[in-house]
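Need residues for this backbone.
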């Protein structure tokens, strides 16, 4: 019953997306209003049916219907309800279904937000977006069918992977990543829609940038939560190890960040058009590559990958999207040029270039330099991630590219990016006299020196760390200047108070204000990474009950061990009474969790956190009352977890709809006509 209902909903989704994509294509070609309305109707039907299919699967999991293939694979009567529900995305077929469900939500939300606006672009955009939906629903209906019926179901199942039911973050981290990955379909489809329509208007770039901001912020939060999950579950005391799965989410984040900045130049100044479109398309392509890397099994072995049906099919789809994107850019970018020239002839203006009306001392030039660094960073990380696969496929030998390579790449490029994050806000749009540059950079330089000095006085003297602190302080001060200067100017001009001027500036420059807040979230993450990477200390102790260990100003007394039986697992806990000087911290209890489906235990650390640093305890061995444990101290680790909400808050400010919107026209042929 459940299998039939679920499969019917998936097949309906396939039908609706296919017919809707075809109808949208015809509406784009013919300008048919009725055809476009039909395409919108089928898009809503697709969204509703694929989302409903996800709810049907959740119902099957909760009711333990082991006649459904996916439930038989990951379900178990002993698994708590919480982990039973989130096991929807715990394995391959369920995660592909979840991918489709989020695509349905994005499709419906996109149509609602656009309403009847942008009629020239929307049919083409909907054609591409529903075309991508066809692939995923076809995948769900065939080789990744989670609703496949089980002829002779067993009375119980193995449950989800123990690592995925070992922490509550399992319910949050994967959905946030998927909201980031899947949401990139929107800007990609909108870029394709502009190319197919043959024009890019300023009014169209605004929603493209907003629809990139939304998944970019989710991807940022997902990366942070993934680091937190690794930190809280795996027991090694780190949040980022350049694992291929981690890198899979980092690639589109880099290009997506570059797109957001270059799109601002395109919208404001009419420059970097083709580069911006390439970045948007590449970001979606890298989300597909990331999904392929994490879901095809290719990183287990190139050879085992070829035994999977999904891996090769997904690779073919990535190849198709790549070829389609290249051909679309090659054959349709000329139409954009013609539209731009026609507009210039009508206005009697000169075509914008990077050098026309701008100089090296301009915000445009800073963003171009930043984009170049993002591109190099993406290429080097992607190369290090994929090189072992290429070598194994070509020479049948296995190698690994480890953390030292990625750290050597990330350190200089990361510092340069943070520095440029401060250079851009310190510079104006267009031209600036060289003699005016020094006053603009004086404040950021002082801010960088102050932060580096404070960190040095706190006892952190590493040269790379101090350099990182300088560029963080430099960027933070420059961004703060962008927030404070217009408020101060309004206070002087309008004789308003701080609160009134801030509210007025925030209302008028919401997107810029939100962008700077998001910058602070990134700076928090970089600060935490620099401190935890540079000043982590750790050691191991072997103790018996009553033994006292001294570590980094903390006193840890081993109380003893105990066994705890839970519904879905058995746990062995080692309890420590922790003091910092004369102050009691409380009890910390790292544990070893035993699951019936896994022979080896899953080690779970326990952590004492405060803004200054984390004390991290993880068991290595527990035999009777004897314990061997690892203790780690990482300064300012908590600041990494704060960065995600700050980025989300900044994004929310940036995309929050204004009370009154100005109607968008053609991109200005004369850069000086663009808003500053």
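Answer:
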């Amino acid at each position: 019953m459940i299998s039939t209902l679920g499969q019917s909903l998936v097949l309906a989704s396939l039908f609706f997306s296919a017919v809707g994509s075809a109808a949208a294509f015809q509406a784009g070609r013919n300008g048919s209003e009725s055809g476009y309305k039909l395409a919108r109707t089928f898009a809503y039907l697709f969204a509703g049916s694929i989302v409903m299919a996800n709810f049907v699967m959740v119902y099957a999991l909760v009711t333990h219907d082991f006649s459904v293939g996916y439930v038989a694979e990951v379900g178990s009567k002993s698994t708590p309800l919480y982990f039973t529900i989130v096991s929807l995305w715990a394995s391959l077929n369920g995660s592909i279904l979840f991918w489709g469900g989020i695509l349905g939500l994005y499709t419906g939300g996109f149509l609602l937000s656009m309403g009847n606006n942008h009629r020239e672009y929307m049919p083409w955009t909907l054609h591409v977006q529903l075309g991508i939906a066809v692939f995923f629903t076809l995948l769900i209906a065939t080789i990744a069918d989670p609703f496949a019926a089980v002829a002779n179901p067993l009375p119980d199942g193995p449950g989800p992977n123990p690592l995925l039911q070992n922490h509550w973050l399992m319910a949050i981290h994967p959905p946030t990543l998927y909201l980031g990955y899947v949401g990139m379909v929107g800007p990609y489809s909108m870029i394709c829609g502009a190319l197919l329509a043959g024009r890019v208007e300023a009014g169209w770039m605004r929603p493209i940038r907003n629809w990139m901001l939304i998944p970019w912020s989710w991807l940022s939060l997902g990366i942070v939560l993934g680091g937190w999950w690794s930190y809280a579950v795996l027991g090694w005391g780190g949040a980022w190890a350049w694992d291929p799965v981690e890198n899979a989410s980092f690639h589109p984040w880099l290009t997506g960040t570059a797109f957001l900045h270059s799109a601002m130049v395109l919208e404001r100044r009419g420059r970097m058009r083709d580069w911006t479109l390439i970045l948007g398309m590449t970001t979606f392509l890298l989300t597909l590559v990331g999904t392929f890397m994490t879901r095809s099994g290719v990183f287990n072995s190139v050879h085992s990958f070829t035994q999977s049906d999904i891996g090769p099919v997904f690779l073919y789809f990535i190849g198709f999207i790549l070829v389609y994107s290249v051909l679309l850019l090659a054959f349709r970018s000329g139409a954009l040029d013609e539209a731009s020239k026609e507009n210039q002839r009508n206005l009697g203006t000169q075509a914008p270039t990077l050098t026309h009306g701008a100089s090296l001392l301009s915000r445009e030039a800073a963003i171009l330099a930043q984009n170049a660094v993002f591109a190099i960073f993406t290429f080097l990380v992607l190369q290090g991630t994929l090189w072992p696969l290429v070598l194994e496929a070509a020479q049948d030998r296995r190698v690994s590219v480890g953390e030292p390579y990625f750290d050597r790449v990330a350190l200089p490029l990361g510092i340069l990016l943070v520095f440029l994050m401060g250079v851009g806000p310190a510079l104006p749009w267009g031209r600036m006299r060289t003699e005016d540059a020094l006053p603009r950079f004086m404040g950021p330089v002082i801010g960088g020196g102050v932060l580096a000095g404070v960190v040095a006085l706190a006892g952190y003297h590493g040269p790379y760390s101090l350099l990182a602190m300088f560029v963080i302080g430099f960027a933070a001060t420059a961004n703060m200047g962008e927030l404070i200067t217009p408020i101060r100017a309004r206070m002087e001009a309008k004789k308003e108070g701080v609160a009134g001027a801030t509210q007025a500036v925030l209302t008028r420059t919401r997107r810029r204000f939100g962008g700077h807040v998001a910058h602070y979230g990134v700076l928090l993450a970089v600060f935490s990474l620099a401190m935890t990477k540079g000043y982590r200390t750790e050691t191991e102790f072997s103790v018996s009950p009553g033994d006292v260990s001294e570590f980094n100003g903390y006193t840890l007394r081993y109380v003893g061990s105990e066994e705890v039986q839970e519904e879905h697992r058995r746990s062995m806990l080692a309890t420590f009474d922790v003091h910092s000087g004369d102050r009691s911290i409380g009890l910390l209890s790292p544990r070893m969790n035993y699951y019936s489906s896994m022979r080896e235990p899953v080690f779970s650390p326990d952590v004492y956190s405060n803004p200054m640093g984390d004390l991290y305890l993880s068991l290595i061995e527990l035999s009777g009352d004897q314990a061997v444990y690892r203790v780690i101290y990482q300064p300012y680790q908590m600041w990494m977890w704060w960065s995600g909400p700050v980025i989300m808050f900044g994004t929310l400010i940036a995309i929050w709809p204004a009370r009154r919107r100005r109607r968008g026209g053609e991109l200005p042929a004369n850069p000086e006509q663009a808003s500053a």
